[in-house]
Amino acid sequence: MALSMPAIMKTTAARLSALYLLLFAICAVLLVFYMTSLSARMLTGQTQETINDEVLGLARVYQRGGLPLLVRVVEQRSRQPGANLYLIADANGQILTGNVQSLEPGVLEAEGWTTEPFSYRRFGEGELERQRNAIADPNESSQSEVQVEGEKGHNAIALVLRLPNQMIMLVGRDLGEPERFRAVIRRALTLALGMMALGGILIWFFVGRAALKRIDSVSQASRRIMGGDLSGRLPVTGAGDEFDRLSENLNSMLARIATLNEGLKQVSDNIAHDLKTPLTRLRNRAEATLSGKHTPTDYRQALEATIAESDQLIKTFNAILMISRLEAGYSSESTSRVDLAASVRDVVELYEPVAEEAGVTLETSVQDGFAVEGNRELIGQALSNIVDNAIKYSIDSTAKPTVRVALDRVGSEIRLSVTDNGQGIPDDADRARATERFVRLEKSRSQPGSGLGLSLAKAIMTFHNGRLDLLPGNPGLSVVMSFPVREDR
Predict the structure, then answer these.
(1) pLDDT at residue 128 above 50?
(2) What residue stretches are annotated with the Histidine kinase domain (predicted)?
(3) Quick one: DSSP state of residue 110?
(4) What count of other Cβ atoms lies within 10 Å of the Cβ of residue 345?
């Protein structure tokens, strides 16, 4: 969706870009002025050092031969190509010799370095200008003979000295070269910074425009999701940038929320359907006890049955609460290093009398040295539920009922498996449904239970970053708890 410029400037990205551009422009201007002034100061310093050396040399000449020798040396040096400015004048400022034809008024009045650059004309520049004007227009040749003194010409700095006989000597240096150098530096920096600014504006326009489009698409998807469509997902372009990483994280969060909402809906439906029967049974038992005449023993038995049925309901609700907490990724239970071999031995020892009473052989194949980061009580509860189911459903085995608990390592996983030789669950779809809440297959309808044992075990394994698999035991069923191996560094 195209955005107008006012709409674009209301976005945080555009405001930050404009602020950065303004700061860049200010820094660029300051950099240009700083570099040009620095280069000018460097060249001016070198010029002053050169003039000082020249003055020292002329002072030695004056000491050796006096004014005549000084005049000859000045005339000689002033005629050399690229010479400095040389001027010798009388006490009144009348120029006697040198390569300077005219000076800006007041230059020779103060002794020492000139406070500011002054204007001057070299000797012969006025005549050369008149000749050029005469060639260009002979009728105006008379006008070209105007006195050029005082007119603006070149700029220079100089050192003015008074000789012992009150004559004035000036040694200076033209500033044309430093000024040209400063102009070149200024143009180069201005051009470079201008190109950088133009590139920044173009990058901001194209990249910022693409970013704004992606933000707009994210906003549209967010509005759909807020409207109740939890199946919607934020767009991912595959570029792998910050937008993609943010979208992927938010999509994972949305998928998690959708899973939790679906689980909540299933729990609500299951509670409405599967808990209605025991509640109805409680009510009917209480109503039957109150109707008619009964002995105190009958009343006591009815109350005991009601308490037992209530305890089972409380256990069911506690299991539902524990599953919800674990699936939400939150548990107040503490975690530590758990020795799986010790946990297996404790559960097997607990269920050996139960298996013996049911006529089931309980075997173990456990290797020591396997430990995981988790909660010992939760792992023990999950294993207890699985072993209890295996004992109950292995009774129908045509062979001698046997339950085998094994602990070993396969690749990068520690696997704790409980295998029985009962009838098992041959159908793949039924094995997938067996871990859902309140799901009880047809063969298990005659067995006591609420259908939450495997669901709780699956939630516990998810809490431990593992998984619960139901595999055919041929015969029977094999329930495998797979824990990831965390390598100690």
Answers:
(1) no
(2) 270-487
(3) S
(4) 16
